[in-house]
Amino acid sequence: MKDEIVVHGARSHNLKDVDISIPKNKMVVVTGLSGSGKSSLAFDTLYSEGQRRYVESLSAFARQFLGNTDKADVDSIDGLSPAISIDQKTTNRNPRSTVGTITEVNDYLRLLFARIGEPICPNDGTKITSETIDQMLDRILELPERSKVQILSPVVTGKKGQHKKILEGIRKQGYLRVRIDGELYDIEELPELEKNKKHDIAIVIDRLVIKDGIRGRLADSLEMALRLADGYALCDVIDGEEILFSEHYSCPHCGFTVGELEPRLFSFNAPFGACPDCDGIGMKLEVDPELVVPDKTKTLSEGALAPWDSKTSNYYPQYMEMAAKAFGVPLDVPFKDLSSDQQQLMLYGSGDKEFHFHYENKFGKVQDKMTTYEGVIPNVKRRYHNTSSQAMSDVMRQYMTELTCETCHGKRLNRQALSVKVGGHDIAEVTNYPISQSRAFFENLQLSEQNISIAKPILRELKSRLNFLDEVGLDYLTLDRSAGTLSGGEAQRIRLATQIGSNLSGIMYVLDEPSIGLHQRDNDRLIKSLKRMRDLGNTLIVVEHDEDTMMQSDYLIDMGPGAGDYGGKVVAAGTPEEVANNKESITGQYLSGQKSIPLPKERRTEDRGMIHVHGAAANNLKDVDVDFPIGRLNVVSGVSGSGKSSLVNEVLKKYLLRELNRSKSPYGKVKDVSGFEELDKVIDIDQSPIGRTPRSNPATYTSVFDDIRELFAQTNEAKLRGYNKGRFSFNIKGGRCEACHGEGIIKVEMHFLPDVFVDCEVCHGARYNAETLQVHYKGKNISEVLDMRVEEALDFFDAVPKIRRKLQTIVDVGLGYVTLGQPAPTLSGGEAQRMKLASELQRVSTGKTLYILDEPTTGLHTHDIKRLLDVLNRLVDAGNTVIIIEHNLDVIKTADYIVDMGPEGGEGGGTVVATGTPEEIAAVPESYTGQYLKPLMRD
Question: Would the annotation count 32 as a binding residue?
């Protein structure tokens, strides 16, 4: 018993009283079709119960800070270990969160720079030092015997003004002599100071001769000088050089001061270290001239200045027109042909120059005055920041973009923090290296013997964490990479690396498809890392579809046999070999080779032209030129971080969205994109949720619910009652249950205990009021229809072509098992993506659409991938063009055309390694994708 986790009667979601024994301290993979119950067993049963038991062992006071966990719907679980979940939904979208902060590498870096960093003046490159009084004394006493010196306190350095108050204060304190601009004056003979001239003023504290026994007097003088000048002192050697002393890190030439070196100075999340201009974000939201004037071929009278559209306002177009006439800017010349000065004036305003403005609104209010012309860009900025209207703020926001901060150049830190170097580099430069380069930097760091002793424990922790990140295939990431830009798979592997570094044992880790976003080349390193965690004495429960991960697991659980209500059972469990030999298991049939995704009988070769991308240079792309054939199934492949997303999502997609879909979002750096004249629109099918509230569901998203509500409104009962289509919506008053506002459930807050969700006692979860539920179509009310699986609904509405056609597309993408009213937030990213695909399939195809998909196989079993490929090929057969970013070899091998990026990730990538058919890619030795494709191609 102690070597197993024994589950009895698991019923979470679609699980059907599952009983199973899972070996502990092994790598256990849970697989099966999408919707078969994998996550219900792994996360909603094993992890949920493991976490709940730990939390319940704590006091009620502690539980309120840890959150509440529902009890899993299971009879019993024995042998359960403390559980840690490493899923894909925990990415921190805070702009202040980076790879370095998540992994705690930044904490050790800040400590390293605070302890052994050397400040270098950014103005002249002088090494900046701070000294104790003893060190200052030692330097003075190194002067030749009998040297004459005077100790001064520099109270004014290079500042304009008469400084009367300072001089009066010196006189009152009883000091006898003052040095002003290099000249000595008795206190009673001070000159008049020129107000507009920079002055240096220093009080003469003491004059003495260097000899034995002078140290005590010298120390007293230095202490007084330092106190008066806030930590600064001068030793003026008569007939010799002058020595500047500072208790601070301060440049002896220009006075640039760093202050005390402490870890908080190197944090962009603390005011001590953050850039004062961008507050440590590294970016600033600014008005983008390209968005303000999206079409430079338009004239001012035709609306070249987009924010001042005559369709939404009469005031600003008239204001602009009168200003243009007053300042001699032609209204009928394309904006691109205006002179530079004229463009600047219209964009940024007239400064102090005024013009006569006359305006009468529709209510008769008149403005007649001399005024300056504000300019469209300052106007947008002012209206964005000063408005109290969220709607107005949103409108102005669309003309703004995040630009690199001009003060810190994106480094996030202030000048003081960036002046401190280790190995000749500041902390921002080190965090900007890819992890692979950071490792090399610390391995080759040359330090003094003293600094080696100080840095040794810090460097050990740094190298350890960087090694773990490298092991899970993230060596291409930079430490300053914003957490919000990480994919779910990358965020998950970062957390995985952190857990490896913790060296915990006796833990049950539950992971959600850790191979997502990984090229086959990097997958081996990931599996090695997982096994390392297992060998520490941990149990790994891995929800996964990757064949290599399954075959290298210790124990394999196949859920099914179908999805939704057709799933929820353990079809097969045992070693990978045992599952492969189980004829009841679809997974086993694919593992054994009985089933497979075949190569296409022929590749599409029809020449309908190319989309040409010229000079793409976004992120790590190195001036890439590449073509995508129109009317084919294109796949962009390459190792993680090779530039796939930069090329497709940042450059191609965003460029074409602006050109074809009239989007205003900026696109990645590129010289030109051409050849897309045959296309009419771009459809981006990503994995973002189809809705963020339970009110959104497959029926509402695909618009089939509109047709169903229309059908109910046409029934005789509805007509007799005078019910229209709106009566059957649970989102508006009329037909919905007002006790729960159409949600069907009511949340009961339990303070220290988990919140309890109970069915509404009025509608009993039906969402509608009793009168609405009395209307039936073919014996079912509207609530019962929402509870139907899509497959059931397809049969139920077989006689209604409009509804049947929409439902069929959902079944075609492999989502027949979901219910029509299933809350959108409960759909996985892969399910949401396929629901979007189904929604697009419903539309009448023009044969001129470009579909872009980013890793659509995420969360899909091989059997589901086969169905997805059928759908995608239907789109291409209809004349459309499909571009997919993908690592899955089954998808790559069926493509008509491949663009393989690489050869490595990060700075080692960003180029096109090979293009062509899968057969052509497989013949390129430099292509990692080709190496893995080769065995799959025909002999």
Answer: yes
- Choice among 20-34, 834-848, 918-932 with the minimum mean pLDDT: 834-848
Residue 90 pLDDT > 50, yes or no?
no
Residue 265: both structure tokens together: 């100075």
**Looking at the domain 283-404, which fold is it?**
Helicase, Ruva Protein; domain 3 (1.10.8)
List the one residue out of 589, 509, 493 whose CA is nearest residue 550: 589
Radius of gyration of the chain (CA): 35
Do the annotations mark residue 726 as ligand-binding? no
- The packing angle between helices 376-386 and 340-348, to 10°, is 20
Q: CA angle 143-144-145, nearest 5°?
A: 115
| DSSP letters for 561-587 | SSSGGG--EEEEEESHHHHHT-TT-HH
Q: In Å, how far from its chain's centre is CA 310?
A: 37
- The domain locations on the chain are 4-91+488-592, 131-247, 283-404, 610-687+866-936, 698-826
Is the pLDDT reported for residue 675 higher than 80?
Answer: yes
Handedness of CA 615, 621, 626, 632 (dihedral sign): negative
pTM for this prediction: 0.76
Is-contact 150 206, C-beta < 8 A?
yes
CA angle 307, 311, 315 (to 5 degrees): 70
Distance between CA atoms of residues 787 and 767, nearest Å: 11
Closest of 192, 196, 198 to residue 167, by C-alpha:
192
Contact assessment for residue 822 and residue 851, using Cβ atoms and an 8 Å cutoff: no
Q: Is 641 flagged in the annotation as binding?
A: yes
- As given in the structure block, the two tokens for residue 886 are 């993908």
The reply to whether domains 4-91+488-592 and 610-687+866-936 share a CATH topology is yes
Does the 698-826 domain belong in CATH 1.20.1580.10? yes
C-alpha to C-alpha distance for 850 and 613, rounded to whole angstroms: 15
Q: What's the burial of 68, exposed, middle or buried (CB within 10 Å: 0-12/13-18/19+)?
A: middle
Q: Is 504 helix (H, G, I), strand (E, B) or coil?
A: coil
350 carries a ligand binding annotation: no
- Overall size of the chain counted in residues: 939
Amino acid at 229: A
End-to-end alpha carbon distance in the chain: 50
Task: Confirm whether residue 639 is marked as ligand binding.
Answer: yes
Instruction: Quote the CA–CA distance of 822 and 693 in Å, as a whole number.
Output: 11
> Does 644 show up as a binding residue in the annotation?
yes
The per-residue pLDDT for 504 is 87
> Could you tell me the CATH superfamily of domain 4-91+488-592?
P-loop containing nucleotide triphosphate hydrolases (3.40.50.300)
The candidate with the shortest Cα–Cα distance to 839, out of 681, 635, 700, is 700
The response to whether 34 counts as a known ligand-binding position is yes
CATH class of 131-247: alpha beta
Edge-to-edge strand order for the sheet containing 242-246?
A: 183-186, 177-180, 198-209, 148-160, 232-237, 242-246
Q: 576-616 pLDDT, tens per residue?
A: 999 999 999 999 999 999 999 999 999 999 999 999 999 99
The answer to the question of whether 821 is labelled as a binding residue is no
33 annotated to a ligand binding site: yes
Is residue 38 annotated as involved in ligand binding? yes
The pLDDT score that the predictor gives to residue 340 is 93
Measured CA to CA, the distance from residue 556 to residue 30 in angstroms comes to 6
pLDDT class for 70, splitting at 50, 70, 90? low
Separation CA 613–CA 615 (nearest Å): 7
Would you say 643 is a known binding-site residue? Answer: yes
Where does 610-687+866-936 sit in CATH, by number? Answer: 3.40.50.300
